[in-house]
Amino acid sequence: MLKKLCPRQIAASLWSLDLEDLKGKGITAIILDLDNTLLPWGSNDIPAETLRWVDKAKKLGFKLCITSNGLTGRVQQIAATLDVPAVCKAVKPRKKPFQKALELLETCPGETAVAGDQLFTDILGGNRLSLYTILTNPLSDRELSSTRLLRRVETYVMGRLLKKGCLTAGQFSTRYSAGGRERG
Ligand SMILES: [Mg+2]
């Protein structure tokens, strides 16, 4: 179970992700979480950095798909602005939304990454399908109260992953060191 919660990579933010490196690893598509990954939680304003990042990823040939537990109207509107497909009301970490995203992307798990800010939804769901999982730091402190509670369990699990040698000290500090988070 613990291994299923271990991200393959940890990035301070989506924006700081080394896309060329990802490409070198054979990744051709990225499934993206919405809230606190592409934009601050609950916001409808897409940060300029996200617009630039999506543009860059597309120019490098990456296929993108949003997969969000959020409601259809808002998610579809943001997806339309970014001109990427979306799976809404996803109920991550269930396998189904990720399978749907793979269908939309027309890629197989081995060439597909998932990037998101939560261990128990994005990383667990991605690992269940053997996707290349990337944990990003949340873009803002605002989130559901249930998520805030889960963050405590997340911190405990991350500590266990470090202790077991599943995570390096560098990866751990990207998540938890002061200044590691790019909060908005
Ligand atoms: Mg999120």
CATH architecture call: 3-Layer(aba) Sandwich
Mean pLDDT: 93
Main sheet attributes: strand count, strand direction, barrel closure = 6 strands, parallel
Q: First CA to last CA: what distance?
A: 32 Å
| Heteromolecules bound | magnesium ion
Tally of DSSP helical segments: 7
The strand line-up of the biggest sheet is 1-6-5-2-3-4
User: Quick one: overall form?
Assistant: globular
Key terms for this structure?
42% helix; 184 residues; alpha/beta; binds magnesium ion
Q: Could you describe the 3D structure shown?
A:
With 184 residues, the chain is of the alpha/beta class. It has a single domain (3-142), classed as Rossmann fold (3-Layer(aba) Sandwich). It is built from 7 helices and 6 strands; from the N terminus they run βαβαβαβαβαβαα. The mean pLDDT is 93. Magnesium ion binds at residues 33, 35-37, 116-118.
How would the blueprint of this fold be written?
Blueprint: E1 9-11, H1 19-24, E2 29-32, H2 48-59, E3 63-67, H3 72-82, E4 86-87, H4 95-105, E5 112-116, H5 119-128, E6 132-136, H6 145-163, H7 169-176
Parallel strand pairs: 1-6, 2-3, 2-5, 3-4, 5-6
What can be said about this structure in brief?
The protein is of the alpha/beta class. The protein is built from seven helices and six strands, in the order E-H-E-H-E-H-E-H-E-H-E-H-H.
